Amino acid sequence: MKDVFETIRTLLAVRSYQDKPVPDAVVRRIVEAGRLTGSGMNGQPWHFIEIRHGETLRGRGALASSGPSAARAPLAIVVATDKTRFAVSDASRAIQSMLLTAWADGVGSNWVGFGGLEKTRTLLDIPAGLDVLAILPFGYPARAVGRGKKQRKPLREVAHLERYGRPFE
Fold first, then answer.
1. pTM of the entire predicted model
2. 115 class by beta-carbon count within 10 Å (0-12 exposed, 13-18 middle, 19+ buried)
């Protein structure tokens, strides 16, 4: 298992997966990471629907414009939220916790969809009182990914000291 900074430094989106199941212990750790994430006023406005059945995965993947490649993942977690003030930001934090936890165990993922997932509600019997925020496919990467080779702005362009425009270095 990697340390937290190394996991963040090397996390990349994975869109193709090996035909290899994610072990139950790893799935549980991923979902627990989401559940244990902090939330505004401890509201915990999230619901995680684990999907491992191939037919459901294929159906779910077809419902999101960015989902066809995700439909071939051995696991997906659909994130639904209560309709509360902090739900999107809180669930986004939970999603990041799940992605980092998975990556630390060698399991890749990629956020699929952001809105436009109403048909997923029907497929998974999600109550009308919840919003479907994201589909997270998970699996072992089909090919080696450039761990840590990211295209990011230099730190000096995004970090400031004491006030905007003062270099952070």
1. 0.89
2. exposed
